[in-house]
Design a protein that fits this description.
This protein has helices at 2-35, 228-231, 430-454; strands at 50-60, 63-72, 85-89, 94-100, 102-104, 128-131, 162-171, 183-186, 192-194, 198-200, 204-207, 212-215, 218-226, 237-243, 246-250, 297-306, 310-319, 326-327, 330-334, 341-345, 347-352, 362-367, 374-375, 383-391, 408-411, 414-415. Strand 1 and strand 2 form a beta hairpin. Strands 1, 2, 4, 7, 9, 10 and 13 form a 7-stranded antiparallel beta sheet that branches. The chain is of the alpha+beta class. The chain is elongated. It is built from 3 helices and 26 strands.
């Protein structure tokens, strides 16, 4: 009798423990997939990258004409002000004689060409290139240049996601003059890393209204990818939740973006150093308002109204960074009911289906041009908000167990810290049963471990 009792308990415990281990394994896989964005791969944008393409247009000993094109092929990440700063390392003694559409930040030591009458544009072994500003002289421009280094994302603005410039490259007097591709590329934007250029099929150009095709002598391409961990070791945004059927607001987790309050600003105050002039070509570190979460960006998701066939949500993004306006901001949201979005008010919206397999649970929101496409810095008007109407899918729609709230939210491509799933607002009467179920499961697992230990 005792042996039968122990056998039953061992079987029950092993079954429960096995299920628990399987659950832990599944959660680990999910977390690994979610955190993969910190290692340069984004499952929501698996083909997202920035390419640097070099086209050799003309070449003779000591004289080469090159076109360089930066193309942002990411769905929702963009390069904001102060823009890209492209740099590389010359493998041989090469100089830049002339540039169109961009310029180097320094000329360097060109004394070797003092007797030539004209000095090169740049003689550095590692030049840094910046895009020209809007309104630059017409004779300095080329097509798709002069936006101050800003590259829009593919979804938000497909027409401005490319930057182009031309260079005339020469050699030092004691060099052979052969063209060699540089290495060690960097676009000068936090979070991005680039590989070395590889040879690809020569780029073809259309002339005479498409009647004739010409091509580059040779083409190389380097690829740059984004890692949130490289950009910042602490998150940049957090999410709070509320609902009409839940009396409390679930806040952002404490210290979501760090716990240091040495550089925070009390609401309504403006410290003197914020009024000082800053280099517009450099990214200024955030100085946030003092909060429990200490995040520059705060996202709030509120379940507002429940209709017979629809339900309504309000989304608010608040800028708590006193140092920055977020231009061309965007939100990416994962929610199972986004496949049934009926209407979005005051924001643009696009459904994202990165694998083209019919799974439609991801959407992108961004501001309307000249209306709310700029998220102003901390203050009374430092927020943007919208409401969306979603059609109920009676097959899976429910307010129970926190189903009405998003699984993930990203701001400008960076993952936001979500509250714990256990804290999600639930319908009255279900929170207690859920808690008791979780408690009973925990007690069962502990009992099984103790039983196996002492039997």
């Amino acid at each position: 009798m005792v042996l039968s009792f122990l056998f039953v308990h061992r079987l029950f415990c092993s079954t429960t423990m096995g299920a628990t281990l399987n659950l832990v394994y599944a959660v680990t896989i999910i977390l690994f997939t979610i955190s993969s964005t910190s290692h340069g791969y984004d499952p929501l944008d698996p083909f997202g990258k920035i390419t640097i393409k070099w086209d050799l247009l003309l070449s003779s000993p000591g004289h080469h004409t090159v076109q360089v094109k930066l193309e942002n092929m990411q769905e929702y990440r963009h390069i904001d002000k102060p823009g890209w700063k492209l740099s590389w390392h010359w493998e041989s003694k090469q100089v830049i004689w002339d540039m169109r559409g961009a310029e180097t930040t320094e000329q360097g030591n060109c004394s070797a060409f003092a007797s030539s009458g004209t000095l090169p544009h740049c003689c550095l072994r590692r030049p840094t290139i910046v895009d020209l500003l809007p309104g630059s002289p017409f004779n300095s421009q080329v097509s798709n240049c002069c936006r101050g280094g800003v590259l829009t994302s593919m979804s938000q603005d497909h027409t401005n996601h490319v930057s182009v410039f031309h260079m005339t490259i020469g050699s030092f007097p004691d060099d052979s003059g052969e063209f060699t591709m540089p290495s060690n590329f960097d676009i000068g934007v936090s979070g991005y890393s680039c590989d070395n250029a590889t040879s690809v099929a020569p780029t073809k150009y259309s002339t005479d209204k498409g009647r004739r095709k010409t091509q580059a002598l040779a083409t190389w391409e380097a690829v740059c990818v984004y890692s949130q961990f490289r950009s910042s070791q602490t998150p940049k945004c957090c999410v709070s939740l509320s609902a009409f059927y839940y009396r409390n607001i679930v806040p952002c987790p404490t210290c979501s973006c760090g716990c240091s309050s040495s550089h925070c600003v009390k609401p309504g105050e403006m410290p003197p150093y914020l009024e000082q002039k800053h280099d517009p070509e450099e990214e200024v570190p955030p100085v946030v308002e003092c909060t429990k979460h200490m995040c520059p960006i705060h996202i709030h998701w509120h379940v507002k109204v429940n209709y017979r066939e629809y339900w309504r949500v309000k989304i608010t993004a608040t800028n708590l960074n006193t140092m920055k306006n977020y231009t061309d901001w965007n939100l990416v949201v994962l929610h199972p009911n986004l496949k049934s979005v009926e209407q979005v008010f005051s924001f643009n919206y696009k459904s994202l289906t990165p694998y083209h397999n019919g799974i439609n649970d991801t959407g992108m929101f961004w501001g309307v041009k000249f209306y709310n496409d700029v998220l102003l810095q901390a203050g009374k008007i430092g927020n943007v908000q919208t409401e969306l109407l979603l059609k109920k899918d009676m097959g899976n729609f429910s307010f129970r167990e926190g189903w009405a709230f998003p699984r993930r939210i990203l701001f400008n491509g960076d993952e936001c810290v979500m509250p714990s799933p256990d804290d999600y607002p639930r319908l009255p009467g279900y929170a207690s049963s859920s808690s008791s179920s979780a408690a009973s499961s925990f007690v069962t697992i502990v009992f099984c471990f103790l039983l196996l230990l002492f039997v």
